[in-house]
């Protein structure tokens, strides 16, 4: 004999089955709503949620290296010309003493990273590339936590050196090579608040010229 509770359970599943049958497209759509880029979610209440909310574009170290490879590749394909169809806004940059000009390209609509803006700066001396850096505009931080340096193999970049630096604002250094040029990646702690996680850094990439790391700032 069917009890009252069992009958209620059977009715519930019957109604659920009818709803799924009537709305298969809606159910399928819900299943496939998966963001391409997962944003960092801060769940620890001790951190200031408003502060984290002001940091717009969170990105992983792997994604940063992929962006770096993409930007360097496209710039090299166009021989760092003043006109590059891949690039968006172009600006003229100057060093602190306002004597050495730097060209700066503003990358937008990067594949798979539409919300990320990247600035490529470089300098030429006698038509020879002597400086290159890559940075991100706006209040962007990069997270090193759970990083996987093996992604360099996919980018055909060889890790020459990785070491921790003693300087408080320069925590790690990578030297990369694509077989022709050498690049330096420096991880810098940009957060002054010591209560925040130590995994947050910003990255710049610089061209290595005659074993010297030419920097704009």
Secondary structure category: alpha+beta
Which residues sit in consecutive blocks of at least 5 with pLDDT less than 50?
A: 18-61, 82-100, 110-114, 137-155, 167-172, 187-209, 211-217
Q: What does the overall shape look like?
A: elongated
Beta content comes to 25-35%
Total helical elements: 5
The chain-level mean pLDDT equals 45
As a percent range, the share of helical residues equals 10-25%
Radius of gyration: 24 Å
Number of strands: 11
Q: Distance between termini?
A: 82 Å
User: In total, how many domains does the architecture comprise?
Assistant: 2
Q: What's the helix-strand series?
A: HHHEHEEEEEHEEEEE
Give the biggest sheet: 11 strands, mixed
Give a brief outline of the structure:
The chain is built from 5 helices and 11 strands. It is an alpha+beta fold.
Question: Could you explain the architecture of this structure?
Answer:
By secondary structure, the chain is α+β, with helices and mostly antiparallel strands. Helices cover 25% and strands 30% of the residues. The chain contains 5 helices and 11 strands, in the order αααβαβββββαβββββ. Strands 1, 2, 3, 4, 5, 6, 7, 8, 9, 10 and 11 form an 11-stranded mixed sheet that branches. The radius of gyration is 24 Å and the shape is elongated.
Q: What are the SSEs and their pairings?
A:
Elements: H1 4-22, H2 24-31, H3 49-54, E1 59-60, H4 61-77, E2 90-94, E3 101-107, E4 118-125, E5 128-136, E6 142-143, H5 151-154, E7 158-164, E8 172-177, E9 182-188, E10 200-209, E11 212-213
Parallel strand pairs: 1-6
Antiparallel strand pairs: 2-3, 3-4, 4-5, 5-10, 6-10, 7-8, 8-9, 9-10, 10-11
